């Protein structure tokens, strides 16, 4: 195994993404960030994990002006390459298809993002609180822009 990502693997990976109208935002030797249409994300994740020996490292959520960006970090360990698939979940939607039904390791990550950023993961088997207390006010998400500590008071 070489110390760098195999170009053919990256090319094949990016060809799949281009077929799905993804945009390469940044790419370095061992990592890349790709914006993906929200409707294409889950099929791409399933394909990469099932067919290309990728694994989900984690999911990161960031509150931005128009909604929440979810960043799905995939590791292609055999090729020493990390790909981040980024989707924007619009504030008017605040929902995303869960990957937990076919990738159980995502259960806690999705619950954490739900607690802190308010994204509902449709199809999640246990969309319940993970971090925040049960008496935390509904609709108050501590990692969203504009959160004020007094909003969390009963």
List the helices and strands and how they pair.
Layout (H helix, E strand, L loop, with lengths): L6 H13 L3 E5 L3 E5 L2 H14 L3 E10 L2 E10 L4 E10 L4 E3 L9 H11 L2 E3 L32
Parallel strand pairs: 2-5, 6-7
Antiparallel strand pairs: 1-2, 3-4, 4-5
Describe this structure in words.
This protein has 154 residues and is α/β, with parallel strands linked by helices. It has a single domain (7-140), classed as Beta Polymerase, domain 2 (2-Layer Sandwich), CATH 3.30.460.80. Helices cover 25% and strands 30% of the residues. The mean pLDDT is 90.
Quote the beta fraction. Answer: 25-35%
Summed over residues and divided by their number, the pLDDT gives a mean of 90
**Please, how many domains?**
1
- Low confidence ranges: none
Helices, by number, come to: 3
- Work out the helicity level: 10-25%
The CATH top-level class label: Alpha Beta
Order of helices and strands: HEEHEEEEHE
Structural class: alpha/beta
What is the gyration radius calculated from CA atoms? Answer: 17 Å
């Amino acid at each position: 195994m070489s110390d760098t990502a195999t170009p053919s693997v990256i090319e094949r990976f990016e060809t799949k993404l281009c077929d799905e109208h993804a945009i390469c935002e940044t790419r370095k030797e061992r990592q890349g960030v790709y914006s993906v249409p929200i409707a294409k994300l889950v099929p791409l994740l399933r394909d990469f994990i099932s067919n290309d020996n990728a694994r989900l490292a984690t999911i990161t959520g960031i509150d931005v002006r128009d909604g929440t960006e979810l960043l799905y970090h995939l590791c292609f360990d055999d090729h020493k390459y990390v790909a981040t698939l980024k989707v924007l979940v619009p504030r008017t939607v605040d929902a995303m298809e869960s990957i937990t039904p076919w990738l159980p390791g995502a259960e806690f990550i999705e619950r954490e993002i739900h607690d802190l950023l308010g994204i509902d993961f449709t199809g999640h088997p246990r969309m319940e609180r993970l971090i925040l207390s049960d008496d935390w006010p509904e609709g108050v998400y501590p990692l969203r822009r504009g959160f004020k500590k007094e909003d969390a008071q009963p």
